[in-house]
């Protein structure tokens, strides 16, 4: 079977690794990744003062900076490969707690990040790993190895007939700075194309066209962030925590991005603005001045120190995607941000991409096994791919939708508010942390839901349901 993955971000790389691990008869499949952006050497470089954001990758530059991989995401990595899991954990900072503060200096709550309380005895606990995005991406990229990622931009998909068999043609263009293939177009056929090409997915456009309702929308919140080389504040090291501060005019977060001895402090500031940055011309001096002004009255001395020394290294207007009616058909499937870009407040985007990749690979392995396929049975292969595709949406959509809904509640806490609303927000956050029962009533048992979800269990349930339905309608597979 020939598979092309579009996009070599966290979701695309992880999908490649899961497919290689789970597909039956692995050497009989050809799997390739097309990526439109050659990697930057590091995420922690300052942005040039005059920069064209259009030339940067969503994954590795524009929304570069830092992120936290939640316990559910870390568990997917552990299932995939313990060495890879350990490498991701080792390059990052294991954040055992989240500390929530108000801009006025109050501590509103402390939450444990670990999934120990919902695990059976003897299972290792996962905690949130805070890291530069580049650090996580680099671990996955190393695990994928050489010769898999091809640096060409995918510019469109088309249906092609190949010896009486319908395939998906992937049209690619050589990159501008590649002297061999600059601008040259090629078409390559595949049995399955996986769109892991992020929030502005070309694969999604080829499935749904240019209708506005299938395009991402700007949330009204933008952010800036970066890294500082300095000793890590004791509020982080003492509690082994990431610090999140909410204020009337925005939000500020900081954490260690690596083992504490590395002295890599990451920070980000989110604020409400109706004007998107001019992507052709980013003026970092003005952005820095606005950053200083925005946080000038915030009480945490660490925030003041960081803002004073900060260099702007990443800029991210936040985009989200509405719910799609399907995530693909006839040999095309969307995963990760291409299918369901969600508000960063959820802290789940990358972890959901990881869960997608595991679920899709396990499903495809299962449906291929059920069809007892050999290479010369294209009809059966197509049937297996179609079933995997359908079940993938059936299993993953409700999971993602629930997380998106919860995220909406929290993202409101980052928008500009008046002084009364500011103190109401502090009280609300304090109450949620102080009286877990209230949080449970409003949000449900979030950690249990997030951390006990299992792709294997969900696949088994979905297949059993399909079998029951087929049996009762007398519609057995051949
Ligand atoms: C500010 C911010 C903070 C966040 N914080 C967190 C967090 O703490 N925890 C968390 O879990 N998530 C977080 N997220 C979300 C997370 O970053 C994304 O969900 C995740 O990176 C999605 O990965 P992806 O591989 O699906 O997409 P992307 O990372 O966007 O990767 C897509 C890849 O496809 C490539 N590509 C695009 N178009 C083409 C094309 N035409 N041809 C070939 N290649 C193409 C891109 O260059 C890119 O490499 C955050 C997001 C933002 C914006």
Please give a structural write-up.
The chain has a single domain (2-468), classed as 3-Layer(bba) Sandwich (FAD/NAD(P)-binding domain), CATH 3.50.50. It is 40% helix and 24% strand. The protein has helices at 10-22, 58-62, 71-80, 82-91, 133-144, 202-208, 234-239, 284-294, 301-309, 337-340, 349-370, 378-411, 419-434, 436-443, 446-452, 455-472; strands spanning 2-6, 30-34, 66-69, 93-95, 97-102, 107-112, 128-132, 149-150, 152-162, 165-174, 185-190, 192-195, 217-229, 241-247, 250-256, 264-272, 314-320, 332-334. The chain has a seven-stranded mixed beta sheet with strand order 6-5-14-15-16-13-17, with helices on both faces. The protein has a five-stranded parallel beta sheet with strand order 8-2-1-12-18, sandwiched between helices. Helix 1 links the parallel strand 1 (2-6) and strand 2. The structure holds flavin-adenine dinucleotide. The site of flavin-adenine dinucleotide has 36 residues, from helix 1, helix 2, strand 3, strand 9 and strand 17.
Q: In angstroms, what is the radius of gyration?
A: 23 Å
Going by helix content, strand content and strand pairing, the class is alpha/beta
Largest sheet: 7 strands, mixed
Q: Which small-molecule species are bound to the chains here? A: flavin-adenine dinucleotide
**CATH H-level superfamily:** FAD/NAD(P)-binding domain
The low-confidence runs, each spanning 5 or more residues with pLDDT under 50, are 43-63
Strand order of the largest sheet: 6-5-14-15-16-13-17
Q: In whole angstroms, how far apart are the ends?
A: 21 Å
For this structure, what is the CATH class?
Alpha Beta
Shape: globular
Continuous helix count: 16
Total individual domains: 1
CATH architecture call: 3-Layer(bba) Sandwich
> How many beta-strand elements?
18
Family: Belongs to the paxM FAD-dependent monooxygenase family.
GO molecular function, one term: FAD binding
Protein name: FAD-binding domain-containing protein
Pfam families: FAD_binding_3
